[in-house]
Amino acid sequence: MVRDGYFYGFGFIAAAVLVWLVTGSWIWAVVPFLLACFFLWFFRDPQRPVPIEAGVVVSPADGKITEVARIQTPDGERIRLSIFLSVFDVHVNRSPIAGTVRDVRYQKGKHLNALDPESAQNEQNVVTVQGDEFEVIFSQIAGILARRIVFRFKPGDFVERGQRVGLIKFGSRTGVILPAEAEIRAVARQCILDWFGVTLAGAREELSRIIAAEALAEGGDGTATLVGLGKKAPPLLAALVNGTTSHALDYDDVTWGLIGHPSVSLVPSTFALGELLGASGRDVLHAYVVGFEVMAKLGRTTQPRHSHDGGWHATGTIGAFGATAACCKLLGLDAGKTGHALGTVYSMTSGNVSNFGTMCKPLHAGLAARNAVEAALWAKAGFTSVPHPFDGPRGFHEVYSRGLPADMTPLEELGRAYELVVRGVVIKPYPCGVALHPAIDAVHMLKREAPIDADAIEGIEAGVTKYTYDKLCYLVPDTGLEAKFSMPYTIARAVLDDSISFDTFTDALVRDERARNLTKRVRMYTHDGIERGWKMGSRPVHVSIKFRDGSVRERQVDISKGNPEVPMTDAELGIKFRDCARACLDPAATSVAIEGLKNVETFDKVSALTGCLRGRAALA
Prior knowledge:
Low-confidence stretches: none
CATH superfamily of the largest domain: 2-methylcitrate dehydratase PrpD
Number of domains: 4
CATH class of the largest domain: Mainly Alpha
Strand order of the largest sheet: 1-2-10-6-5-4-8
Oligomer: single chain
Largest sheet: 7 strands, antiparallel
CATH topology of the largest domain: 2-methylcitrate dehydratase PrpD
Distance between the termini: 62 Å
């Protein structure tokens, strides 16, 4: 119990005893006794587990989050959260981060209802804590009942994350103002964790075995880890192998600005180069963020036309520029050399949508990662190229998106609005093309409402955007790779099976006769309403199932599970990683890997982290 509660609790106990002695009746003592019980309960101070992961910000109090807003301050964009405390919540306040108390400012004010928007004018303490990475401002705000706010530290004091620092009596709210970079770093860490998981899973695929064996035969041992393959290789080859491996299952993340896969070129390039340079985890994370922003902003200048009409796979073409920018950041190159690196990778970039459903689609990611490392290292050594690949005649857009409109204004947002949090990242719950995910969710929703008998189905229709229709080219697939881009097969499997997993996309299951029969009864078409409303983002799908008795059941999903609006939970992300890692790491090693990846910034050298992700040798 908080010591402030002793006065109230034991005071009312004494009052109850006194009333009983004076009146000789316990009935009159009930009220002060109940008040004593309430105060002893109200001032409770239970233990709270404090997260140890790097970059985590803890809530300053129990309660209900009533506001999450982006605000502009003289120091740039910040995130403001408000937490309402009812009289039933624990009222002990805790420091959101570890750091030094830089300022404690008491403001006189009103005592309005804490839920009133005007309560920002209430009496409050405003506390600034400066951490190693960023500062956090939090406030203790009085309310109608809360007439006393207590903060027990002074400027210059050091506080630990989650340490008890004060108290609010009785009710009201707390507020927290975070720098935008706190959310940016958190999303980036999540993407890196997910990338290593899907790469471990992809390491046992045939295409990974082929490309890794050739790389080792060509380059031998080196400084960079081949994730899940139990070997090391030179950085260029490691970036190639890891990038290809991570995209082998099409289980990796997506961002809608790019309309492609960001991490499959960013992580393998920055980690391979980081191991060569002896870079810290913080430096690699920072480079990842820079590369992501460049990649996604460039994507917005030309997508979806670059892929839809031009036939390019943006993961390989535009992704190479983002990965190169990340490598330049890691190398500390100036603007001139960074321009030459981007100009060099302009002559290397490639990847077409014709190879979807083959081993070459993952290769696009590997080539982007390898070319990024190579272009950046060459630029550092003095190699030159056209210094401005996006400007002037024969620039990237004119050559790769000839005759298509380009809008360069998104590049003006660099450093001001971050794609990582504005449009966010899709972390995939299913190992297949992201355009299939809304259809899977739609079928699962229908099955939760009532069972579906596959034999009773006359036909299924899937209404999609034209973009989706053009990219999902396999109507009746013959291989697992083709099935990852087949709307009819995936819907058939969602009807037949309770879950969509790795096994869904094996050659054996694809050739299962019952699945093939149902696949042939699924028709995909361009849905006029969806096409008119779609701009860029999640790919809506309208699923309609017609049964032999004439009945119809239908469901449309606009935003599928895994999108920022419907995110996977931390528990689901952990399950996904463990499922991906099981072929390469034992359970204990998997736990170590998860803990390390959640704390990537704490590593002085990323090689100390990648060592636990090498896995068991899969190659002779």
